[in-house]
Write a structure and sequence with these properties.
Layout (H helix, E strand, L loop, with lengths): L4 E6 L3 H12 L3 E7 L3 H10 L7 E2 L2 H8 L3 E4 L6 H10 L4 E4 L6 H14 L3 E4 L6 H13 L2 E9 L14 H18 L3 E9 L11 E8 L4 E7 L12 E6 L2 E5 L6 E4 L15 H15 L7 H20 L3 E2 H15 L4 H8 L3 H5 L6
Parallel strand pairs: 1-2, 1-4, 2-3, 4-5, 5-6, 7-10
Antiparallel strand pairs: 7-11, 8-9, 8-14, 9-10, 11-12, 12-13
Helix pairs in contact: 4-5, 5-9, 5-10, 5-11, 7-9
Length: 367
């Protein structure tokens, strides 16, 4: 058996604690360092989770070489992802980065370029791809054939307090990326355009738009319809949402938690095969390790995962303009902005070398 992969984790906050527990439960990895700007917090959190012997520091620079790091887990806030992950990649370290990859598509593209410049894997932890019942739902869809329509209803009423309740588009920016990303996986093609209308109900405790309806057109003609709210008390859905998919052969539904059900046009049921795969961030970590050991491409490798962020950015733009927005236009603008804002160096060189940003991220070029 290979030696456990030596990990440095950057970020010791709430999500950082969840990752520390996940790392401890996986025999294929070992934590060799914990980084956070708040060093006393790092020390306290490491000790609390059974890592009393693991060194802590305020920066990756202080720790990576000293502890023989082989990979980095970036669990910082999204604002810091472009700094932390790019630093690690240019040091020659592969990175598993918490979602979203970055706050803007422009920053995402600089991270793609950094991965290419450093010759390292950058994978995004889209943890809601890793639910056993969700995997079973995907297997049913594969049996039904090409998806023509996919819908997700998401209705919750969380009272977070803090920054989420002050955001301009809290539902779209902070939550919907989970469902948008999962739609890409379930449909199996890429999004081309979106029309979105976001709004804020009268009774909302959010400052910004806590509800939205969006219709995405995918390559091949499939439609994905998302309707959701973060201020919908009563009869709430799963945090994964409630899903329905239809093809020429039949329909499948998934409540986001339980085993899905599916039926052919003949009325014959399609069995749900629920496996025992690692779930949520444990699934992300397992796929990351497997990808590094086998030199394979994980499903959320950075190049294509940019499209999940682009779906969010396009939905926000559509709501603001009241018109449909093409994903290709979002990417083109972001690439131009990335070139203009990136100083000369290896990342700028990679950005300049791309003949087509659409080809780089795997988006079909449509008129």
């Amino acid at each position: 058996m290979p030696e456990p992969l030596r990990l440095v984790q950057v970020g010791a906050g709430g999500m950082g604690r969840a990752w520390l527990r996940t790392i401890k439960e996986n025999p294929d990895v070992v934590l060799v360092g914990l980084v956070d700007l708040d060093v006393p917090l790092s020390r306290a959190v490491a000790d609390e989770h059974g890592y009393a012997e693991v060194p802590v520091a305020a920066s990756l620079d202080e720790l990576a070489e000293q502890v023989g790091a082989e990979a980095v887990i970036d669990v910082t806030v999204p604002l810091a992802h472009p700094v932390v992950s790019v630093d690690a990649l240019l040091r020659g370290l592969p990175v598993l980065c918490e979602k979203p990859l970055a706050e803007t598509v422009r920053e995402c593209l600089t991270m793609v370029a950094a991965a290419e410049a450093g010759g390292q894997l950058l994978m995004v932890s889209q943890s809601r791809r890793y639910f056993r019942t969700g995997e079973a739902f995907g297997r049913q869809l594969a049996e039904l054939g090409a998806v023509g329509s996919l819908s997700c209803e998401f209705f919750k009423a969380p009272r977070f307090g803090g920054f989420r309740e002050r955001m301009a588009e809290p539902l779209l920016v902070d939550m919907a990326i989970h469902q948008f990303d999962l739609a890409r996986k379930l449909i199996g093609t890429e999004p081309l355009s979106v029309y979105c209308d976001s709004y804020n109900p009268d009774w909302s405790w959010f400052d910004g738009n806590a509800a939205a309806d969006a219709v995405f057109t995918f390559d091949g003609g499939a439609r994905f319809v998302f309707t959701g709210s973060w201020c919908a008390p009563g009869l709430e859905t799963s945090w994964n949402g409630r899903w329905r998919a239809s093809s020429a052969s039949g329909t499948a539904i998934w409540d986001g938690d339980s085993a899905p059900t599916a039926e052919l046009t003949t009325g014959e049921p399609v069995p749900a095969h629920v496996g025992n795969e690692p779930e949520e961030i444990a699934g992300s970590l397992a796929e990351f390790v497997h990808a590094l050991r086998t030199d394979s491409k994980p499903q959320t490798e950075v190049h294509t995962n940019v499209l999940s962020v682009a779906m969010v950015e396009a939905a926000v733009r559509s709501s603001a303009s009241g018109t449909p927005v093409r994903i290709a236009d979002v990417l083109t603008t972001a690439h131009t902005e990335a070139l203009e804002s990136t100083p000369p160096g290896p990342i700028h060189d990679v950005l300049t070398s791309w003949p087509s940003i659409h080809q780089v991220v795997g988006l079909p070029e449509k008129d």
